[in-house]
Amino acid sequence: MESRESSSPIVTRAVAAALDNEIISNYMFSRFEQLGLRILGRFPSRFAQAIVPRVQRSSGLNYKIASSITSAELIANRLGDYRQLHRMFPAAVIGVAQGGATAHLARLLCAPFLPQAFVLTLRGGSPHGDAQEYFQLSKDLAAHITNRNPEFISIQHFDPVHDGWLTRSLNHLRLKLIEMPDAYRSFIRSHVVPGGDVVYLDGGATWLRQKVGLRNYYQAGGWGAISAQEFYYGSQRLEQYSAHEKLTASSWRLPDFDIESGPESEWGSEDGLAESLEEFCLQEGYRFCRICFESPNQFSLLAFLAYQQFLVDQGIQPSGVVVEMFSQFDPSIVHLAGLLPIWLIFNTRDSLEFLNRMLTQVPVNLPVFFSALSTFSNTPDMVNWDEWTNALAGWQWINAGARGSHYPADTLALLDWKKPLQHFCSLSNVHPKGRLTGDQMALIAERINQRSQLDIYSKSDRAVSNAS
Q1: 10 Å Cβ neighbour count for 202?
Q2: Average pLDDT, the chain
């Protein structure tokens, strides 16, 4: 029932495969869908930009079905991704699904990942970007689900800019755990060795939001190089964007609710889960480790530095670097090929600035695989193709994502982006063994937090985070 391409399912599927050293597809397309994507990829990108959003309309969940959803069902689906793993692990990871960063950290810890958030993609959106229309579509459903499942809070997430090609016909409802579910307790008891590590990834990213019910929130906009204030109060560039896209509004706050600061819908952690998890670990004898960052980019930096240390400890020279983006990542390939991962949140300007800072830590003799994301939309903060290639100038880089001729609407990239990486991995002689412990990971995280006021991650990223 959960959106199959949302962050949590992609991360749990990828981590489950990586723990068995398998390489799987991130995107789950039927044969018919694959054929359609290949045909579209032969035409100029404007065809994909026109057709793909229309096709997405049929992918939304029926409201009647959604109303019967329980937390137990959603959790069982994610735990089901690990059903082929019939062994005990030295650790488990719980918390925010920070894309490739979370997946790489879980693989290094040799740990299954258990997510805090679950996303329902529902039928119906706002064709002209009207916040009230979008809100009314799922407000009753959100309250119904949280009333039936008190371990959840809900966030109706409306981003008509970055997700505009989706929100015209679909509605995003995110459900987030605020207490430790019994299914997670049972899973840890049966899959983590006594006294093992339980690592909690605490996302401190904040945003503006509005409380619309007892445990229900609405969030306008999302992470990128457009501030929360712009989404709620408007700006000249959003007015221009809305006019170009024929939207009736250029700010998307709800008129009847106060605006407050709170955890960002996708990259922020809600209060409650960490506290009940720590209490569980104390009672059961597990080693609780909490890693907290204000910025999603810091989790990416942690994954990079952790793999750097892991390879040094193994006496292995890194074979290269892979620049991943949003849902395009693979922890198996990174681990088996001895690559250093740089995971970018999206194809927006804040991610370009973070990449520029990270590349200063990359030796120029290492090959760099670059995986540009297909988003099928042009946003005011999107980085154009030439800017990406300028950033990579000076490195031997290999395209492992959208083609420059079709970016940001390359349907072939959805099918083929891993192929250069898989070929590189097949030629690798790297055979890493062992793992990092929770204590080792926490020490690296502590060093990052101590240096957080330096240029170790994007200044604009801090500005966007602090804007709320």
Answers
A1: 18
A2: 93
Closest alpha carbon to 200 in 441, 451, 13: 441
Task: Identify the three-state secondary structure at position 131.
Answer: helix
Tokens of 374: 């297909």
pLDDT in tens, 51-75: 887 776 667 888 999 999 999 999 9
Distance set, CA 102 to CA 320, 435, 466 (Å): 20, 15, 23
Q: How far apart (Å, rounded) are the C-alpha atoms in residues 311 and 305? A: 10
Interval 396-444: pLDDT, tens? 999 999 999 999 999 999 999 999 999 999 999 888 889 999 999 999 9
Beta bridge partners of 119: 174
Residue 456's contacts (CB-CB under 8 Å, 6 or more residues apart) are 301, 357, 448
Range list of β-strands (E), 334-396: 339-344, 368-370
For residues 164 and 381, the answer to whether their CB atoms sit within 8 Å is no
Backbone CA torsion sign across 253, 255, 257, 259: positive
Report how far apart, in Å, the C-alpha atoms of 430 and of each of 254, 374, 387, 396, 427 are.
Answer: 54, 31, 33, 20, 9
Cβ–Cβ under 8 Å, residues 254 and 261: no
Tokens representing residue 187 in the block: 């899973």
Mode of pairing for the β-strands spanning 287-293 and 259-268 = unpaired
Q: How far apart are alpha carbons 178 and 150 in whole angstroms?
A: 9
Q: What element of type H or E holds 439?
A: helix 438-450
DSSP 382: B
Q: Structure tokens of 111?
A: 């740990």
Distances (CA, A) of 204 to 283, 295, 296, 300, 366: 26, 7, 8, 14, 33
Sign of the Cα torsion 428, 429, 431, 432 reads negative
Six token digits for residue 94 = 């719980």
Q: What local confidence, expressed as pLDDT, does residue 138 receive?
A: 96
Question: Going edge to edge, which strands form the sheet with 368-370?
Answer: 339-344, 320-325, 368-370, 397-399
Query: Comparing C-alpha atoms, which of 37, 23, 29 is closest to residue 5?
Result: 29
Tell me the torsion sign for CA atoms 52, 54, 56, 58. negative
155-180 pLDDT tens trace: 999 999 999 888 999 999 999 999 99
Q: How far apart, in Å, are the Cα atoms of 277 and each of 198, 221, 442?
A: 9, 30, 17
C-alpha distances in Å from residue 273, one per residue of 117, 228, 297: 11, 25, 22
